[in-house]
């Protein structure tokens, strides 16, 4: 028995010395090889654990010596593997460093949203006709959204079922706060700041008002609780309906093609008189009639009219000396006509597959 114990003692010492010699020559090219070395020497089934199994049979008087050598071996293996792991990590980090001499990485570029593309095109057309941009708050008061625009006190637009109200004043409706239902409120702010105390204009008003608006509607493929508008306003002396018609004809031909025809149908808006809806000849069938234009040959695109004298007076402008016209269109409507988008919800869902279709249009 004593001879057998001595044999185990010598065998384990030889194994320890053999492993100590191996440790200094361990090499690894990457993290995967480092992990293989760790498993080979330090795992549950590794070389060090096998030594511990034999260590149980070492004579008691020799356990201290053998235990110290096993601990030394374990520390040497651990240090070597950690050093190899650090070297591989440093090398991989260096490989990923930015090389400023390389050509740019292939970064996938985005594109403008289709509503932005169309809005910019509309603004560009009217800018070339002398209109300038005007902007205003989306959270507005009743005074500028409805009162200045000649809406009756009992008009449905002043109902919570049609408009999003933030707060309501118990005694004065003009102080109600709401999400604007049209960008006409911007026109009101421009008019009230462009005249003297006696109602004289400080200069002609020719503005274009793009922006987001809100209405309390159910969200469907054909309607949304928010959408985008572009409205226009021109106020000066001797402005006529003929001026309005010519401006809108020029816009339609710039937007939809030189052969586009327009027609104006009588309509009603609280802020214009006379008022009209404008149609363009269907650019798909050339006015012959198709499913897109419901076989009429015409497609409605905007509303317009001469500014009601009450609106001018509400905004402090002398209606006996000045006249003007206004028009407004939904950007989603124009975008649908240009690109035939079947569902309005796609404009606000941010589906990149849908947005990527407009890269060529940008």
UniProtKB/TrEMBL annotation:
Subcellular location per UniProt equals: Cytoplasm
**Main location per the UniProt record:** cytoplasm
Q: What is its EC number?
A: 6.1.1.20
Keywords noted in UniProt: Aminoacyl-tRNA synthetase, ATP-binding, Coiled coil, Cytoplasm, Ligase, Magnesium, Metal-binding, Nucleotide-binding, Protein biosynthesis
Instruction: Report the cofactors.
Output: Mg(2+)
Organism classification: Bacteria, Pseudomonadati, Bacteroidota, Bacteroidia, Bacteroidales
Q: Quote the record's binding site residues for Mg(2+).
A: 273
Q: Which GO terms describe its biological process?
A: phenylalanyl-tRNA aminoacylation
Reaction catalysed by this chain?
tRNA(Phe) + L-phenylalanine + ATP = L-phenylalanyl-tRNA(Phe) + AMP + diphosphate + H(+)
Identify this protein by name.
Answer: Phenylalanine--tRNA ligase alpha subunit
- Pull one GO CC term from this UniProt entry: cytoplasm
**EC class of the enzyme, as a word:** ligase
Q: Name one GO molecular function term.
A: ATP binding
HAMAP family per UniProt: Phe_tRNA_synth_alpha1
Family annotation (Gene3D superfamilies): Bira Bifunctional Protein, Domain 2
> Where in this chain does the entry annotate a coiled-coil region?
9-36
List the Pfam families hit by this protein, alphabetically.
Answer: Phe_tRNA-synt_N, tRNA-synt_2d
The family this protein is said to belong to: Belongs to the class-II aminoacyl-tRNA synthetase family. Phe-tRNA synthetase alpha subunit type 1 subfamily.
